[in-house]
Design a protein that fits this description.
Number of helices: 4
Largest sheet: 2 strands, antiparallel
CATH architecture: 2-Layer Sandwich
Number of strands: 2
Number of domains: 1
Shape: globular
Structural class: mainly alpha
Strand order of the largest sheet: 1-2
Distance between the termini: 24 Å
Strand content: 5-15%
CATH class: Alpha Beta
Order of helices and strands: HEEHHH
Length: 87
């Protein structure tokens, strides 16, 4: 079950611009797949719908996507920094 603090954190992630292409805020929250416990709220990054599930996206073409935008771990680190700036 997701706690209020976890929901709040994911809301902050969703309010950020897409961490890949920079599209306007209110992104979808993508759970980073590089960790065993990938559904953890703190392991999330903001992605616009196209970067999340489009034809060239983290789900459709993960290797190519990461070659262009960086690994999910790098995008996660950037997301954590951005969320902490707004706290």
């Amino acid at each position: 079950m997701t706690t209020k603090a976890e929901k709040d954190y994911m809301g902050k992630v969703a309010a950020l611009p897409c961490c890949a292409c920079g599209a306007a805020p209110h992104s979808l929250v993508h759970h980073v797949r590089a960790y065993e416990r990938a559904r953890e709220p703190g392991l999330t990054i903001p992605l616009c719908p196209e970067c999340h599930v489009g034809s060239f996206s983290i789900h459709a073409t993960p290797e190519q996507f990461e070659a262009v935008y960086g690994s999910q771990i790098l995008l996660l680190a950037r997301t954590i920094i951005e969320v902490s700036k707004n706290d």
